[in-house]
Design brief:
The complex is a heterotrimer of chains A (498), B (502) and C (99).
Chain A lengths: L8 H9 L5 H19 L2 E4 L1 H16 L12 E4 L26 H8 L4 E5 L33 H8 L5 E5 L6 H7 L2 E4 L20 E5 L2 H11 L17 H8 L8 E5 L9 H16 L3 E5 L7 H16 L20 H12 L2 H14 L5 H24 L2 E5 L15 H5 L6 H6 L3 E8 L6 E7 L5 H15 L13
Parallel strand pairs in A: 2-3, 2-4, 7-8, 7-9
Antiparallel strand pairs in A: 1-3, 4-6, 5-6, 5-10, 9-11, 10-11
Chain B lengths: L12 H7 E12 L36 E2 H13 L3 E2 L6 E4 L9 E4 L6 E10 L2 E14 L3 E5 L11 E5 L6 E7 L9 H19 L11 E11 L9 E6 L2 H20 L7 E6 L4 E7 L9 E2 L10 H9 L5 H12 L3 H9 L3 H9 L4 H19 L10 H12 L5 H12 L5 H8 L7 H14 L1 H8 L6 H11 L6 H11 L2
Parallel strand pairs in B: 12-13
Antiparallel strand pairs in B: 1-10, 1-11, 3-6, 4-5, 4-15, 6-7, 7-10, 8-9, 11-12, 13-14
Helix pairs in contact in B: 3-4, 8-9, 8-10, 10-11, 11-12, 13-15, 13-16, 15-16
Chain C lengths: L5 H10 L6 H18 L23 E2 L9 H5 L5 E2 L2 E5 L7
Classes of the chains: A alpha/beta (498), B alpha+beta (502), C alpha+beta (99).
């Protein structure tokens, strides 16, 4: 194993700039690491060694000419398999899209290509991003590198595990109800859900359009800031893309690293604690709150009463939107086609293909969403859920009148054993209790490692939330907290070690 | 589901009206002639090779997203204003969810309970009587792909072995204009329905927002019809006849469904709410899809698009730039052209107003333009059951022919033959004149001998002319024209006769 | 408490064009009932005075100029198709009428 893989993306960028290494070398050591451990971790669905090395060679050539495109030019990255990539399969973890190769790049993929980051491959995920454990991938689960019989979180367990196992210094994830932050929490990595609309969704295969957001998955707050600034910005191909830029993230991360939080008001969310929250998680969380106080922050408790209804609203809005989004997978234009015996009609082929191509969780949500949108139920369910959404936005507004950022545990427990909640959808859904409100309100959130549990030695995450477009606050407070807590993830703590 | 008789015999039209009041409504889909599609930058033009005008968005590829075409919104607002409608201050797109292979996403991005245009009306005239057609709404949506059915006997959907889909048309902007039920038209129901569609087409042509070619599908009508017991003031169960694609068919579809409904109601049966297909060849309808659960379209606001909130300034700007209102224009042109009330009404009813206007704009006199459009060309359109605008002759061609008549190189009789050629698709005006040998003979040599022959054949007439009776020349002119097969320049013939007999 | 019966799940699956087997229906229907009971807790919580939020950020009027941009090539468009004929997507015979 090369020690290079232990460096952060910012350090790798500096090494490249200083001529101490090359992109080809960096890319190769990560490909070697993938070859060594991904058989155990299964973070990747597709590995593009050839493509990554050729992008790396091009990066080195640019750098030799003094034409580096970006600070991260040449630093390899992994991409969640829900983002379209020209020439690379994009399956969304589903049999439905096995072998599908998109003819276009997602805007964020285009941005990382344009900045010169070699793409190592596509990472595993719960099918169509539905799940909190990556066990709903049609291609088998990803394992938590800390303990291989544990889940890596979901839906973006692949991206989080790849970064946690040092298979990639950076990854892209997507977060609809916590799919970046919850895997971050249970793998000891940093994950950010940016303000809704501040990173383009064009080319992100939609789960729930009004909730989805692309974001960075990294090992440090500064690395997230670097990647976040790279992928953000207005995109005319995404009608919901904000025109107000989210800026100053890297500066905020560097400022936070000084450890001074004097004058910063932090609100502890009263509703995201208590019953259902593991005591070891709460102990680590409370330590983080104490640290914030020590760093000079003014910590108060705030109440957001509507948050208790967030999960119900979410599990009506999301299934409704995804039932419609996933209708396009009908075996007519692309994807799996199953032709039943006899003389089947288009309708028969659609039904058979959708039954064969979708897994249980996808079917559950499609049916629930179809129900919620049906005439006669719309007002009681979908309409009501959208009103709850308004109440949650109002709760956030009131809270942010009192404090600059909100804080809560990211996930109610540490990584649970594979299979533990597979047949209990509600228990699985509870994983996202703390992360869902930000998606409903469009506000940004970050999960950073708070330490390891005193019970099972597995990582615990702490979540910070900021007002819409104030993503920089997450980086300032997050970097300060990260510095005070000290490193949580290290290769020696992993079951997949050197 | 119990078997419902499709028809229990047709009741004569007059008899229907003795017992029932008809109510009808129209849903008209208009394809806009924007450069690009509703939600992506693919060309919205016809005729590209299959699947060459598609992108991730209009092909519904995973991950793609829509962006609204500003010009389509502008066209929708202009249509709304021209139809005396209100323009929503805030409205959204919604998804209409249903599965069909010609729909790339298996939902149509449309508008549901928040249309951009609402509460409009259009006054239409039938036989001198004005009927107000209330327009409930007009909304924006996207077209579907085009399906070709392969195998089977008929090339139709039923009995086909499989189908081929071309998505070039998918995503072309559509405006759907929906009327309220139109009551109280009685025997004139079929004509009012037709007149409404004709008036709507005139307005859309004037706005320049669509080609409005019913024969090419850029304007498509669905006709709703119901009957209620005479004088009851209620609304009966309706049927929806789809894709009625000519003005004449609109009239026929209303008429046929009235007769069919009456037959069923007379037998004491109930009308089955369903969609029906119109058959151009027979003028009849047949049962289509029954209204069912499948019509639970599960509408919800399109989360990938943000609301459309046209500023009042924009709306007023568009209002100020609207073309002249049709009624005003009709009145103005009647005066300008010197037509009688009756002439103008016929012109209007024939859908010839824009055509004559365009012909006059090419330099033809209003009288000559009316003559050709209302006689030769209208007759041909009627015979073939097509709209005048789609008869196959353009205003420019009419003007070209009339210019030749005015210049003396065609007679009216020869001009008629040119139109025959144009209608038969024989080529350009010049090609037809050439191929059919229709040029007027004005060459003195050729005419001279024909004149000599005519004089020789009718010495008594010649004597009268020599005696100063010029009016008698007519008989000789007629003989020369006959001898030359109508190709002689009558004016020159007259001059030659008078010269020779001076 | 709302109820989502096995028959209703079968009907919804039909609307959603998923050919669920009997075994799947047996398995999914009770799970859906549990989920529905949980989410049904929000019924009636917010009154008429609370507006619905369909977009998290209040934006309006995002338009595109009516200018042609490059399309895919037919080869790209058809590259993922299960069956192609005459540069068109080949689909099995269609039962229903067009909408």
């Amino acid at each position: 194993m090369s020690e290079l893989i232990l460096k952060t993306a910012a350090e790798l960028a500096d090494s490249l700039a200083a001529g101490e290494t090359t992109s080809v070398e960096l890319t190769q050591v990560h490909l070697d690491r993938i070859a060594a451990v991904d058989g155990d971790v299964h973070a990747f669905l597709h590995i593009d060694a050839e493509g990554a090395l050729s992008q790396a060679a091009a990066s080195d050539a640019r750098r030799a000419n003094g034409d580096a495109l970006h600070a991260l030019d040449g630093v390899p990255i992994a991409v969640k398999d829900v983002l379209t990539t020209i020439g690379l399969p994009t399956t969304c973890g589903s049999k439905m899209l096995e072998g599908w190769v998109p003819p276009y790049d997602a805007t964020v993929v285009k941005k990382i290509k344009d900045a010169g980051l070699p793409i190592l491959g596509k990472t595993n995920m719960d099918e169509f991003a539905m799940g909190s454990s990556t066990e709903h991938s049609a291609y088998g689960p990803t394992k938590n590198p800390w303990k291989l019989d544990r889940i890596p979180g979901g839906s973006g367990g692949g991206s989080a595990a790849a970064v946690a196992a040092f298979e990639a210094p950076l990854a892209l994830g997507t977060d609809t109800g916590g799919s970046i932050r919850q895997p971050g929490a249970v793998t000891g990595t940093v994950g950010v859900k940016p303000t809704y609309g501040s990173v383009s969704r064009y080319g992100l295969v939609a789960l729930a359009n009004s909730l989805d957001q692309v974001g960075p998955v990294t090992r440090t707050v500064l690395d997230s800031a670097l990647l976040h600034e790279l992928i953000g910005g207005h995109d005319p191909l995404d009608s919901t893309s904000t025109t107000t830029p989210v800026t100053g993230l890297v500066d905020a991360a560097r400022a936070g690293a000084t450890g001074d939080l004097k004058g910063v008001k932090v609100g502890v969310i009263k509703e995201l604690a208590g019953e259902g929250w593991a005591p070891d998680v709460m102990r680590k969380f409370n330590e983080s709150v104490d640290i914030l106080t020590k760093l000079g922050a003014d910590v108060v408790e705030v109440s957001t009463p509507s948050f208790q209804h967030a999960m119900a609203a979410y599990y009506l809005i999301l299934p409704a939107e995804c039932s419609s989004n996933l209708a396009k997978f009908d075996a007519m234009r692309y994807g799996l086609r199953v032709t039943p015996d006899g003389d089947p009609s288009a309708e028969d082929v659609m039904k058979a293909s959708r039954d064969a191509g979708f897994g249980d969780e996808v079917k559950r949500r499609i049916i629930l969403g179809t129900y919620a949108l049906s005439s006669g139920y719309y007002d009681a369910y979908y309409g009501q859920a959208q009103k709850i959404r308004t109440l949650i936005i109002e709760d956030f507004k009131k809270a942010f009148e009192q404090v600059d950022v909100l804080v809560s545990p990211t996930s109610p427990s540490t990584a649970f054993p594979l299979g533990a909640k597979l047949d209990d959808p509600l228990a699985m859904y509870m994983q996202d209790l703390a992360t869902i409100p930000a998606n409903l309100a469009g506000t940004p959130g970050i999960s950073i490692p708070a330490g390891v549990s005193d019970v099972d030695g597995l990582p615990v995450g702490v979540q910070l939330l900021a007002p819409v477009l104030e993503d920089a606050r997450l980086y300032r407070v997050g970097a300060a907290l990260e510095g005070a807590i000290g490193p949580v993830l290290s290769i020696d703590k992993l079951e997949v070690a050197r | 589901m119990t078997a419902v008789p499709d028809s229990l015999g047709l009741v004569g039209f007059d008899e229907v009206l003795e017992r029932y009041d008809p109510a009808f409504g129209l849903e008209v889909h208009v394809e806009l002639n924007t450069n690009t599609k509703m939600f992506c930058g693919c060309p919205a033009t016809f005729g590209g090779e299959p699947n060459s005008q598609v992108c991730p968005t209009c092909l519904g590829l995973p991950g793609s997203m829509p962006v609204v075409n500003a010009k389509a919104v502008e066209s929708a607002i202009r249509i709304g204003l021209a139809l005396n409608g209100s323009i929503a201050e805030w409205c959204r797109f919604a998804r209409k969810n249903y599965f069909y292979p010609d729909m790339p996403k298996n939902f149509q991005t449309s508008q549901y309970d928040e249309p951009i245009v609402y509460d409009g009306y259009l006054d239409v005239e039938v036989e001198g009587e004005i009927f107000r057609v209330d327009i409930e709404r007009a909304h924006m949506e996207e077209d579907t792909g085009k399906t070709t059915h392969i195998g089977g006997a008929t090339g139709r959907i039923h009995g086909a072995d499989y189908s081929l889909v071309d998505y070039n048309r998918a995503g072309i902007p559509l405006i759907e204009i929906v009327t309220r039920p139109i009551l109280g038209t009685g025997a004139k129901a079929p004509l009012v329905a037709k007149a409404y569609v004709a008036a709507l087409r005139e307005i859309l042509l004037g706005l320049g927002v669509s080609d409005v070619r019913m024969d090419q599908g850029s304007m498509r009508c669905d006709v709703n019809l119901s009957l209620s017991p005479k004088g009851s003031g209620t609304l009966g169960t309706r049927t929806e006849t789809k894709n009625v694609n000519s003005l004449r068919s609109v009239e026929r579809a209303v008429r046929f469904e009235m007769s069919r409904h009456a037959g069923i109601l007379d037998a004491g049966e109930a009308i089955f709410q369903e969609t029906r297909h119109f058959h151009e060849d027979t003028g009849t309808t047949s049962a289509g899809r029954a209204k069912s659960d499948a019509d639970d379209y599960r509408y919800f606001p399109e989360p990938d698009l943000v609301p459309v909130a046209p500023s009042r300034e924009w709306v007023e700007e568009l209002r100020a730039s609207l073309p002249e209102r049709t009624a005003d224009k009709r009145a103005r042109l009647q005066v300008e052209w010197g037509y009688s009330e009756l002439e103008m009404r016929d012109v209007w009813a024939a859908g010839a107003l824009s055509l004559i206007e365009a012909t006059v704009a090419e330099g033809t006199s209003p009288q000559a333009a009316r003559k050709w459009w209302m006689a030769e060309l209208s007759r041909s359109a009627n015979d073939r059951g097509v709209e005048l605008a789609e008869v196959g002759v353009t205003p420019a061609q009419v003007a070209e022919v009339q210019k030749l008549v005015d210049g003396g190189s065609l007679t009216d009789k020869l001009a008629r033959q040119v139109f025959e050629g144009l209608l038969a698709g024989e080529g350009t005006v010049a090609e037809i004149i050439d191929a059919r040998g229709l040029a007027v003979v004005s060459d003195d040599g050729a005419l001279g001998s024909a004149v000599d022959e005519a004089i020789a054949a009718q010495p008594a007439v010649a004597e009268k002319i020599r005696g100063g009776n010029q009016a008698a020349a007519g008989a000789l002119i007629g003989a020369v024209m006959k001898a030359t097969g109508g190709k002689a320049d009558a004016k020159r013939v007259r001059e030659l006769i008078l010269e020779k007999l001076a | 408490m709302p109820e989502i019966t096995r028959d209703e799940v079968a009907h919804l699956a039909d609307l959603a064009r998923i050919d669920l087997s009997d075994a799947e229906l047996d398995h999914l229907a009770p799970q859906l009932q549990v989920i529905l009971e949980s989410v049904a807790s929000i019924q009636g919580l917010a009154g008429d005075d609370v507006p619905a939020t369909s977009h998290p950020l209040p934006m309006t009027n995002v338009f595109r100029e009516d200018v042609v941009t490059p399309s895919l090539t037919p080869e790209q468009a058809l590259s993922g198709a299960p069956a192609v004929e005459e540069q068109r997507f080949s689909v099995p015979r269609i039962l229903g009428d067009e909408q």
